Structures are given as C-alpha cells and as structure tokens.
Amino acid sequence: MKWFAAVVVILAGFLIAAASPNFDQERYLSPGEMAFSPDGRRLYIVCEKSDELLVLDVETRAVVKKVAVGHVPRGLAVSSDGGQIFVANSWNDNVSVIDAKSFEPVKRVGAGFEPTNVVADRTAETLYVANRLTNDVSVIDLASGHEIKRLAAGHGASYLALSPDGSTVYATHVYPKVAHRTTPQSEITVIGTAGQRVIDRVPLSNVAGVFHIAISADGRLGVAAQLRPKNLIPLAHVEHGWAFGNSLTLFGTDVGGVVEVPIDELDRYFALPFGVVITADKSRIFVTAAGSDSVTAIDVEKLLRFVRTHRQSFANDLSASVNYVAARIPVGRNPRGLVLSPDGKSLYVANRLDDDISVIDVRTNQVTGTIDLGGPKKVTPLRRGEQIFYSAKYSFQGQFGCANCHIDATFDGLQWDLEPDGFGVDVVDNRSIEDLAGTEPFKWNGGNPDMPTECGPRTEKYFYRSQSYNEQELTDLVTFVMATPLRPNRYRLPNGELTPAQERGKAIFERTRSKDGREIPVANQCGYCHSGNKYTNQKLADVGTGKPIDRSPLIDTPQLTNVANSAPYLHDGSARSMEEIWTVFNPKDKHGVTNDLTKDELNDLIEYLRTL
Amino acid sequence: MRSIWIVCVVILVAAPLLASPPAMPMYSWENFTTANGLPDNHVFCVLVDGDRVWAGTENGLGLYENGKWKIYRPADGLAHRAVLSLALDKRTGDVWAGTMGGLSRISAGRIDTFTQLNSGLSNDIVYGVGVQDDYVWVASAAGASRLNTRTGQWALYNERNTPMYEIWTYGVSPGTDKVYYAVWGAGLLEYDVKTERWKDYNDPDGETEIVLLKDQGLIHEITTSVSYIDKIVWVATYFGASRYDGRSWHNFLTKDSGLPSNFMSFIKGVDANRAWFCTDKGITYYDGINWAVYRPALDTRRPEMLVRDADGNVTTVPVKTAPAHNYTLGIDFQGDDVWVATAEGLSHGIRQASPSDAARASNAKHLGAHK
Questions:
Q1: CATH classification of A500-609 is 1.10.760.10, yes or no?
Q2: Are B46 and B53 in contact, with CB atoms under 8 Å apart?
C-alpha cells in the first residue's frame, strides 16, 4: 500500500502545482512602449513581463543590450538630447533614469501609485509621470530627483504626450470619472510646462478608457485613442454593436473643437485602440487595435475634410470610417505601442503577446519585416490564455474581448446591464480580476460556481453571440485569469505594520460588540462575511444594498484585496467611495454595524480596509 | 521778547495740528456687486491668484478674470452655494473652496467635491481652508481635517486627539513648520509639523471680556481667524486681536490701537510687522506703528480714511472712494492692491501714490539725475 500512498502524494503534488498560478516559468518579454534615440540608430523597447529595457540596433535589428529596470515597467521616454532614458516602473512607484551611453541605471526617482507613462520636458529638467492609482501626474525635478508636486488628472491617469513645441503635456486616463449609471465622462488633462499647472481639461463625453495621445508636428491636431462604451443599455443588443465603439478623439485648431471619430466598420470592429501616432507631414494617423491584432492607417486629409463637412456628431456612425481609413494592417498579437522612425519612413509596432516588433513601410502600409526580440519560443497555457484574454476575435464581428472591460486585467469603472432579462434589471459594477483564486463563486449574484463557467457558457451566451472558446482555449483563458497577480498594496507600511489609525480600524473590523456594549450578531460582524485571506467567505448575503431592480437582495461577498483601487463600490457601483458604503447605503446596519461609529472611527475603518 | 514767547506758544500748540499724518497706503476703491456681475453681495472671502480674483459669496463662487465674472454654483459641481473660505495651492493653481456643504477643489475648471458622506472630511460646514505642500487643512464645524492629496488619506483632529475642547474651528493658517487653527471658543491651536503634536493657547482671563493684564496671552477664546507668516501668528477674535512671536504676545484693542472695533472676522498678516484686520467697522491696516481705517463713514456713509499715528493722534485723510461696506470679512493682496470681502460687495483697493510717496519718488528721480 505504500506505493499507492506515494502515487497519491505525487498526483496530489501535480494537482497542486497545476492549480498554482506560478507554474508557468517562462519569462516572456511583453514589449509595450517604444522610443527612438534621436539619431534613429537605437530603438528602446520596454518589456513589461521581463522587467527590462531592450536596446535594439535598428540597422542590424539585433537586441544589443538588456537593461534591468523595475517591476512591470510600462512607460518610456527619451530626453530630447538623447542622453537619458526614462522608464516608469508601475509596480515600484518610481522611474528608472538610465544613461543612454553606458545604458547604466543612474537613479530611480519616486512617483505616485502605479506610474504608467512618463515624458520629459524639452530641457530634460522636469519629468511628468502619469500615476494610474492616484489619478494624477507627478512633476519631478530631475536634478534633485524630487517630486515637486502632483497635478490632479483623470481617474486612472495613464498616458502622456509632450507637444512638439514643448509647451504642453497632455494626459489621458483609462477609467471614467467615478459615477453611477450616468454617461461616462473622461477628459484630456492639459498641463502647461511653463507654470507646471493644469491649464485646461478637454471634456470627453460618453468616453471611458482613453489610451495614447499624439500631437501633430505643427501642434494643430491632437488625437487620442479611446473606447466608447454603451453600458447604459442592456446586453441584449450585441448584434447591433451595442457594447463598445472604438474611436479617436480629435482636437486642436485643425478641427476647431473636440470631435469623436469611429474607426470601426459596419460589420467589423477594431477593438481596443491603444497606440496612436501622427506622421511628421500630418498625412497619416496610425492606431493600434490591441484587441484586433492590427494597425489602422487613417488618411488625415480625408479625415479632416470629412470632419469639416459633418458638423453633426457621427461618433456612432460605423459607415463613416470608410471615408478616411486608408488601410488595416495585420500585425502580431496585442499590438500596443507604436513609433515612427525619425526619418518617417517606417512604423514600428510592439506586438506585446508575440514578443516581436512589426515593421511597416509607411508609404505602402505593408509589413516589411518582423523583429524577434528573443522571448521564449514555448507558448505556455498561461501565455495562450493571455492571448485569448486580450483578443476580440471570438466575439461577434470582433467587437470586444475580455480586456475591453478588464483593462490591463483590472476593471473598467463602469456598471453594466449584463443579462438579457429586460432593461435595467441586475445592473452590476465591474469587478477587478486580480488574485481571484479562492474567491469563487463569481458574478455578483454568485451564479457561476467557478471560472470555467464564468468564462465559458456565460461568455458565449451573453457576451459574444459567437463561437466562443473551444475546450482548450477555455482552459487556457481560465488559467490566465486565475493567475492574474495581485498588485502591491500601497497603503501598508514597508515593515508590514499598521499605522495607529489602521490599528484602530482593524479593531473596529474585528469587533464583536457595538459601542453601547451590545453584542453584534456573528453574521453581522465584518469578519464573518469578509473572512479568510481574501476577506470573503464566498457566500451570499443580504446586506441591505439590494435595489428594487435587483432580482434578489442576496449579493456575493466580494473579496477585499486591494479594495482601495476599485471605486465605485457595492454590487451596482452606487457607492462612489468607500465612505458612501456606510454613510449612504447602510441605514439599518445590515452591512456591518457602523452607525454607532464616529467620523473618526469610520475613517479608521477605511484606513484599515485600504491595507487589505 | 513778549512776541517771541507768543510765537513759541503758538508753534507748540499748533505743531501737532499742522504735522502731516504718517504716510499710509491710499486706495481708490472699485466696488463689485450683483449689478456688475458678482454672484451675490454677501461676500465671505476673497482669493487672489495672479490676475484672477475669486470671491466666495452667499450664492456662489465668482471668478473675476479679464474683466468678466464667471460663476460656479452647485449645478456646476460646487459643494454648496455658500462659499465661506478659499485657499490657493500655489504649486498647482488649484483653488480649494470651503462651503456650507463640503469642500470643493476647482482645478482648471473641473470641480471635485469632498463631503462628510463621500470622503473622510469631518463636517460639511467648512469655515476655513489652507494648503501647505501636499496637505489641505480644513477648519470645520466639527474639528480639523487634513487631506493628503497624494494618497487621498484623511486625518481628523478634534477633542479626542488634541487639546481642542471646543471643536468649532473657524480658521486655519498652515506653514511649513507649524499649522495654526482659530477655534471659536477654544483659543488658538498649534500643530507642530515635525513632532506632530498639538498645543493650545488660551486667554489667561478665561472666557471673559476682562483683560486683567495687557499682553499676557491670547486676547480672547473666541477666535475667528489666524494668519501665520514670517514665524509670527496674527489672531483675530470677537474681542480684539493678538500677535504672537513664539515668546511674547501683543494684543490690540480699540482703546489702545487704531482698531475701529474689537469685533473681527478675519485677519491677514503682510509680514511679521504688518497686518490687515477685517472688522465690522471698516477694513484696517497696521504698518507696525501706524493704523489706517478705510470705510464708508458709519454715520454719513461718505468715503472715509482715518489714520492713527504711534502717539494716538487720529487724522481724517480726505478720500473720494471707500470699500463697499464697513462690515468686512476677508482680504487678499494683489501686488500693491487689496481685495476686500464685505457684507455688501467685493471691493478692489487700487493703490494710489500718496503725497509722501510722490515726494519720495520725486526725490529719487532728482537724486538719480545728479548721479
């Protein structure tokens, strides 16, 4: 029998290993952003998964240097004199400053939470860094390495562009303004470099998820890549193109205001517009469709003519793009950043999930070559799952993929009417998908017991109206989703201890008696539902937050890990802040006993929750 | 001999009468009311940011720029229409408005609002607000609040963790080393930025209007405003004003200063020695020695400027204009000009060259010509 026991142990070991999110040992590169050296001889490529900056010799197309940077680097910039390279390390909350001659890291300068993009001013005296989790832009004095100030930007501030004359920095953000069931609102934050202040905010109505932004060389035309969600209507109309429009916002004197321009076609979508560039002669705009594995080339002259002759909004007119789209250029998987060579002849596109670069002849709109960056050749289930996650090819007409709503495997800050059960019933807030293992069941009503159910039949039936995934694809997708890591918590002290306020909040979270001495029923104590290492007992509960439009008041207990990052709150997103969960939506103390707390104590409780 | 004596006596008697009053700033007052675009005539506070002037009124926040008023109200996202206090983040240009319904940040036209329901703010009645580095300090009807603008975290200060035995905080003035709160009924509170400790300063006479010993401490417990500048604390109360240099107090009352009233709603130091006092009987300037009061005369309502010298001699200086009202609630500086919030409008004091200024300028020019 001993051999039998040994086999059982070995099998159990395999099963445990297979269930672990760390079984995938391949170290992919995942190139995201790129920038040229001013002389055009070097192409710098930041690799999100390998935590590296790659230096590519453009002539030989060989990687000549790998520079270790911080964790999950996302943003990249080069000083105008070419002497320094800046990399935003999104999980380290800092920026690596690298000498462009020796390729040695010189120093790291601190920024806000999750710095995602960086630009340097013309003199490279000041860095501007977009911080996704603090919703602001850091202004950093490069000489001292000190962050001078923060400028309030949009929710999920992420991408930046410096105007060609150096006078202005433009910032976009990936989540809409926190609100409940209203038309999504976003903005382009305009920063004057002279005063280092926000000088304007360009409102973007009905827009959520704004990515790269570019300014023409003459400064007269700005363009931002974005999503136009249609989350205020039910899912029932996916076949009518209800879910997302993929579009650009044009602004500047060339268009005389703000104009939203669709890039989709009547029966084909170009999902997740991400990177955008304008050629120096302003003849073409190139946009990566990160979910459709392609680059869209737009004829600017035709575009401007169309815009000027159509004064009414055509943001929802899918027939419009035929008037200005010059080409759809297939590239690799999940194309993100793109950059024009200094001579303007070539366009380089980073295929994030293929670890290579597509080179496009700008004149012919043809891919002339692909540069292998040397990532692992083996494609693991985890990597395949990631490719599926970011792809829109499975959905009806290629409209959208998982990453449309789960931007960079997080959330989108929107509330959706997901079920085909009638208008306005069971409206739910989108949840982050970080660190999901041990948080089953899924959906706010707990209707999906596991991730295969969540991603499989449900997705096929409700979301995609299409073939959905085969068994292997579903397994791979689930592998990726369940392995999505937890981002670092920014509110815990470095030594792991709690501040006095957090300690007081912890005591409130764990209390068993209200302040008048009465025992709080076990089921009404915070730690009853929010138990375990993910702070969920994985059960349904009625905490009094159900709305008349909900089919049941029973709500799945959400995990609380990194809860500070995912406003709005509650199952329908009706609480714009954590405070509102209790100040507005807990009148009868059903969502924990909180009405005996002073404002100080409620603040302490929230300070503790931020650390989870 | 007799005639010499007569001349001497005449000179001695007439000298004080003939002596010119000390040269105090002269202003031409331009007044704004609803008639020329102000949101409301009850102006609680004023803030200058370069060429832009913000006025917090009972019915909206006004921004005066390029000769026009732009008005922000709750429909635009403002926390409440009654704006009680204003502060500028000089680094970012953001304006923070304390209202009767919360705290609003106006940033390049976008308004973000923080209330006791949607944020950690202690109370929605925000009497005072100040910005220092990354912190926004709030004086509310339920204690002090501090927002860390980098992390979004709030810290509350009240009777539970400070010597604030009343929690009606009326004014706040943050500095790099100290933060001062005027607590209505609880004197002055000092926060040491380095040690993170609080200290209170109270009227040694308690909550009475009796002043047993002059300059023995804070003039009164009912403080309404505080201004910390050049390591000097200026405090306004309903019963006089105080100046504190970290060791000694100096108090100002109508009986021994040029203050026209002991009832003050606001105070703003120019530097360690000079300050402006917003009283119910005129806006008042103190240059460290002399005093000047600017107001419509309390009886005739005609423009009036009173100057009091160090010896207590009061002179009426002829002027053609005056602030909109003698009941003043706020002041800010725009170069040599001043902007004053009053109960009947917003007043812009445009600095004029006084006769002595003109003489000095002439002398300088004359001397320069001989160089």
A1: yes
A2: yes
CA A359-A362-A363 angle, to 5 degrees, is: 135
Taking domain B31-370, whether its CATH number is 2.130.10.10 is answered by: yes
Which of B109, B134, B155 is opposite residue A201, by nearest beta carbon?
B109
What is the full per-residue pLDDT of chain B (371 aa) written as tens digits? Answer: 555 555 545 444 444 444 577 899 999 999 999 999 999 999 999 999 999 999 999 999 999 999 999 999 999 999 999 999 999 999 999 999 999 999 999 999 999 999 999 999 999 999 999 999 999 999 999 999 999 999 999 999 999 999 999 999 999 999 999 999 999 999 999 999 999 999 999 998 876 767 777 788 999 999 999 999 999 999 999 999 999 999 999 999 999 999 999 999 999 999 999 999 999 999 999 999 999 999 999 999 999 999 999 999 999 999 999 999 999 999 999 999 999 999 999 999 999 986 655 555 454 444 443 33
The CA-atom distances, in angstroms, between A134 and each of A156, A168, A199, B151 are 7, 21, 20, 7
Fold held by A26-123+134-168+187-205: Methylamine Dehydrogenase; Chain H (2.130.10)
Distance from CA of B119 to the nearest CA of A (A): 6
* Residue A277: both structure tokens together: 């560039």
Say if CB A230 and CB A399 are below 8 A apart.
no
Contact yes or no for B120 and A198 at CB 8 A: no
Q: Rounding to the nearest 10 degrees, give the CA dihedral for residues A594, A599, A602, A608.
A: -160
Q: A172, A210 in Cβ contact below 8 A?
A: yes
Q: Is there a contact between A152 and B105 if contact means CB atoms under 8 Å apart?
A: yes
A402-A403-A408-A413 Cα dihedral, nearest 10 degrees: -90
Instruction: Give rounded-to-5 percent helix, strand, coil for chain A.
Output: 20, 30, 50
Say if residues B285 and B274 touch (Cβ distance below 8 Å).
Answer: yes
Amino acid at B13: V
Q: Is A493 on the interface with B (CB under 8 A)?
A: no
pTM of the model: 0.92
Contact state of B122 with A580 under an 8 Å Cβ cutoff: no
Given an 8 Å threshold on Cβ–Cβ distance, is A579 in contact with B117? Answer: yes
For A13, half-sphere exposure in the C-beta direction (CA atoms, 13 angstrom radius) is: 6
| Touching A: B residues 142-171, CB under 8 Å | 142, 149-156, 158, 160-161
A152 touches chain B (CB under 8 A): yes
| Candidates B90, B103, B110, partner chain A, best to mutate (most A CBs within 10 A) | B110
Contact A110, A116 (CB under 8 A): no
The kind and range of the H/E element at A604 are: helix A599-609
Count other Cβ atoms within 10 Å, centred on residue B320: 8
B221 touches B239 (CB < 8 A): no
Q: CB under 8 Å to A447, separation ≥6 — which residues?
A: A441
* CB contact (8 A) between residue A190 and residue B110: no
CA distance A292 to B265: 64
Alpha carbons A525 and A508: distance in angstroms, whole number: 10
Name the closest residue on chain B to residue A580, using Cα atoms. Answer: B118
Rounded to whole angstroms, the Cα distance separating A409 from A434 reads: 7
**Any B CB within 8 A of A201 CB:** yes
Domain residue limits, chain A: 26-123+134-168+187-205, 382-483, 500-609
Sign of the Cα pseudo-torsion (A486, A491, A496, A497, in order): negative
Helices (H) and strands (E) in chain B, counts: 2, 30
Helix, strand, coil distribution of chain B in percent, nearest 5: 10, 45, 40
Instruction: Please give the helix or strand (H or E) that residue B314 lies within, else none.
Output: strand B314-317
- Domain-wise residue ranges, chain B: 31-370
